[in-house]
Structure to design on (394 residues):
């Protein structure tokens, strides 16, 4: 069975073609920097590798490019889209409606649309992926896996907000949590690898960022909440902010609610602090002496450290912390900033191991470190394929 996995992020599309149940990756790739002046396209098979740069203005154009690559010349891996049995989609927000993978039908699409306002950078792109894929892979089943599903186990003490009870009972306003496929995948790999892994903190750092406290394999707390906008400092999102600032901007500074929402989601975070949303550029600028960029990096790491302390407290300890996703896997500098002066938590970073670039799961802590520090490359696409395949067997 050939399954195409479409993972649409706020500014990227990752994809894999996977043969199941063998879990064989036939091809994989990514388009990032969607909507910017130049987008990067990578495409890999067992025998070919393609890298291109071109403007990809939106997710629809990106998905059409991916379909073309799958069938293009000598590097193509299928002759016809009819060879694809299933397309599995990552959908960020499932709200209270979805806690498991589902076959996509009109009702599912309507529910995803209803949640646009809670995940405005993601759910529209996810639904666009479903629509475009339906038109390209016409004989394939369309299935959706929700980022929020893994966090349905967060207990009420952690998922309930301190607002009148009716907003939870009647309106389902609560912490939902996101990046669930990533946190689930890397935590399960860590638990397979480590002798002691009862208490894990997973740190997903990309254009969107989040952290999860995982106890005995179960998500018990998470940094993102009702929508994927709070918590850590992100590429263009502010993360945690005093809500009174919103009212001040509207009532005193004259901003509309729509303008404030756009500012907090698309003009803040690392972009608002530095003028750049790509961390690679920010690190380069900091190395060249840009104090504004250095401060933004320090602020980014500071907030991660605060949450490590919080989650260690609620779990009464920590066995391992896991860095994953684009920044977590590739930025040795961010990892160093986070792990410096954390000896109280039993964390000792091995500077040599930390600088080694690898696509493999690895420890980067010293042999004497009481808390394991690991880098585990996420594979949301494989996790989605596993969940989709399991649903098909039911």
């Amino acid at each position: 069975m050939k399954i195409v996995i479409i993972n649409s992020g706020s500014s990227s599309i990752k994809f894999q073609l996977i043969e199941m149940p063998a879990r064989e990756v036939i091809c994989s790739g990514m388009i990032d920097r969607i909507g910017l002046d130049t987008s990067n396209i990578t495409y890999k098979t067992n025998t070919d590798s393609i890298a291109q740069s071109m403007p990809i203005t939106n997710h629809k154009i990106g998905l059409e490019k991916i379909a073309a690559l799958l069938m293009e010349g000598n590097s193509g891996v299928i002759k016809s889209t009819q060879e694809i049995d299933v397309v599995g989609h990552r959908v960020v927000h499932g709200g209270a409606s979805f806690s498991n993978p589902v076959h996509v039908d009109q009702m599912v699409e309507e529910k995803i649309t209803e949640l646009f306002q809670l995940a405005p950078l993601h759910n529209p792109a996810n639904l666009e992926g479903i629509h475009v894929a339906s038109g390209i892979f016409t004989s394939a089943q369309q299935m959706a896996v929700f980022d929020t599903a893994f966090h349905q186990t967060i207990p009420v003490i952690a998922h309930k907000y301190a607002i009148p009870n009716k907003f939870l009972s009647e309106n389902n306003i609560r912490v939902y949590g996101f990046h669930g496929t990533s946190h689930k995948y890397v935590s399960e790999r860590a638990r397979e690898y480590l002798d002691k892994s009862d208490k894990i903190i997973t740190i997903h750092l990309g254009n969107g960022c989040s952290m999860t406290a995982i106890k005995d394999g179960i998500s018990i707390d998470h940094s993102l909440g009702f929508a994927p906008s709070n918590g850590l400092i992100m590429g263009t999102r502010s993360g945690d902010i005093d809500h009174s600032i919103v009212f001040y901007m509207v009532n005193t500074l004259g901003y509309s609610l729509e303008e404030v929402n756009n500012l907090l989601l698309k003009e803040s975070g690392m972009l608002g602090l530095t003028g750049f949303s790509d961390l690679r550029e920010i690190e380069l600028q900091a190395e060249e002496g840009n104090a504004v960029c250095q401060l933004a990096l320090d602020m980014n790491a500071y907030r991660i450290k605060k949450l490590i302390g919080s989650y260690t407290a609620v779990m009464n300890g920590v066995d391992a912390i896991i860095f994953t996703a684009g920044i977590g896997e590739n930025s040795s500098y961010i990892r160093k900033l986070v792990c410096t002066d954390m000896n109280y938590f039993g964390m000792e970073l091995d500077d040599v191991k930390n600088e080694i670039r690898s696509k493999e799961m690895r420890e980067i802590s010293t042999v004497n470190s009481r808390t394991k520090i690991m880098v585990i490359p996420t594979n949301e696409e494989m996790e989605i394929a596993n969940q989709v395949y399991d649903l098909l067997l039911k």
